[in-house]
Amino acid sequence: MRKTKRLIRNTETGMTLIEVLIAIVLLGIVGLAIISGLGTAFRANAVADGQTTAMTIAQRQLEDLQHQSYKNDGIYTAIVPDSPYTIMSYNEDDSTLIPGVVGYAWNTIDGEYDASINGIQRIKLVIAVPIIDVGEDPEDPSDDTTTYKILHTLTVYKVQIP
Question: Whole-angstrom Cα distance, residue 161 to residue 73?
């Protein structure tokens, strides 16, 4: 009998355990990068949506203000924007936000507040959203403080036409 040598060939195809683990790790890294990118895109979209809404509210208020007659006391009617947005104005020296639409006598030459000027008012509209900081007692709203996140500011001048 003749002995023949047989060559044993490994005909199995596939991946080793190490190759599978490396592929899983790489897929996990890529998946995390994609999810992180989507989260950033969603946040950017929300910010842009808020800015666009604030600008639209400011434009609506400006159009409404153009149809209102000049008021010597400087207090004008504000539109009621959709919640959570609010319309405010800066005071005469831009140090404080005041609810509503308020105009101050304005000296256009000096570019500053001047109570002796009659006939032109500067109105600095602010569209903001309130941020309520809950105090120590969540059940007691009297110790809550409210700050505002300013989304859009628009300066307009109201002129009295004789």
Answer: 16
Half-sphere exposure of 94 (CA within 13 A, CB side): 12
Q: Which residues are CB-neighbours of 114 under 8 A, at least 6 positions away?
A: 105, 106, 107
On the question of pLDDT at 10 being above 70, the answer is no
Q: What is the pLDDT of residue 124?
A: 93
Is residue 62 within 8 A of residue 125, CB to CB? The reply is yes
Where is 39: in which H helix or E strand?
Answer: helix 17-66
List, as own/partner pairs, every contact residues 63-66 make where C-beta atoms lie below 8 angstroms and the sequence separation is at least 24, other chains included. Answer: 65/101, 65/123, 65/156, 65/158
The mean-pLDDT minimum among 4-18, 107-121, 123-137, 145-159 falls in 4-18
Across residues 148-158, what is the average pLDDT? Answer: 91
